[in-house]
Amino acid sequence: MKFFIDTANLAQIKEAHEMGILDGVTTNPSLMAKEGIKGKKAVEKHYIDICNIVDGDVSAEVISTDFDNIIKEGKHLSKLHEKIVVKVPMIKDGVKAMKWFTDHGIATNCTLVFSAGQAILAAKAGAKYVSPFIGRIDDSGWNGVELVQQISQIYSIQGFKTEILAASIRSSLHIIQCAEAGADVCTCPLDSIMGLLKHPLTDIGLAKFLEDAKKFA
Ligand code: G3P
Q1: Are the C-beta atoms of residues 30 and 61 closer than 8 Å to each other?
Q2: If you measure from the C-alpha of residue 104 to the centroid of ligand 1, how many angstroms do you get, rounded to a whole number?
């Protein structure tokens, strides 16, 4: 399973990248706004700055909702940097636009996916990634990880090549459960990635080893 970081914060992206375990970045308009980036040029520069830190794909989301403008915006975003993947919402014009991007060699990430039916449409449109929103599904009383399992089973039976990118991750446990459920990628907040490191027996064991090492230093 690939690890993406779900943030537009450059310091956090650098920190995950420096650990050597980062395969890409996802952003969305809310994450960009959180960084206080204002204006089209500043947003574009920020995407390029992110691309210059990481080695893998960087999702940049369109904010248009009609076919013509999604195409115009997506074409522009894809030209900013070769690592850019155009993130498109799961709406009718979005599906049509993803098929157009697929036919024109532009990679897409289908976002705001909450059902298996939506994931089938994303795959039919040739999206490189489909993004089920795990945490938001859990928030509404459904089971986000079960959706990842269901999509994984459908894609496997049908031979769809679209990669399942588990998004809206809220915890380290979500990452583990998504790995078990067959996610190809998990896009996570830095805290959830760092949480995977933690085990009290590791800390206790290391303290004991370091203490014993003093005996023969
Ligand atoms: O990748 C989608 C993600 O950013 C949404 O996360 O926590 O706002 O549901 P959240």
Answers
A1: no
A2: 28
Closest atom of ligand 1 relative to the 168 alpha carbon: 6
From the alpha carbon of 170, which atom of ligand 1 is closest?
Answer: 7
Catalytic residues: 87
pLDDT at residue 156 greater than cutoff 90:
yes
Buried-exposed string 163-195: b where 16+ CB fall within 10 A, e elsewhere: bbbbbbbbbbebbebbeebbbbbbbbbbebbeb
The Å distance, Cα 139 to ligand 1 centre, comes to: 12
**pLDDT reported for residue 217:** 81
Consecutive H or E run containing 185: strand 185-188
The Cα-based distances of 75 to 126, 154, 159 in angstroms read 16, 30, 28
- Dihedral in degrees, nearest 10, Cα atoms 42, 10, 1, 30: -50
Mean pLDDT of 31-57: 95
Backbone angles phi, psi at 170, to 5 degrees: -115, -10
**pLDDT digits 0-9 by tens, 63-85:** 999 999 999 999 999 999 999 99
CA distance 40 to 99: 26
Please write the tens of the pLDDT for every residue from 180-206: 999 999 999 999 999 999 999 999 999
How far is it, in rounded angstroms, from Cα 217 to Cα 209?
Answer: 12
Q: What is the mean pLDDT of residues 125-148?
A: 98
H helical segments located in 125-171: 134-139, 144-158
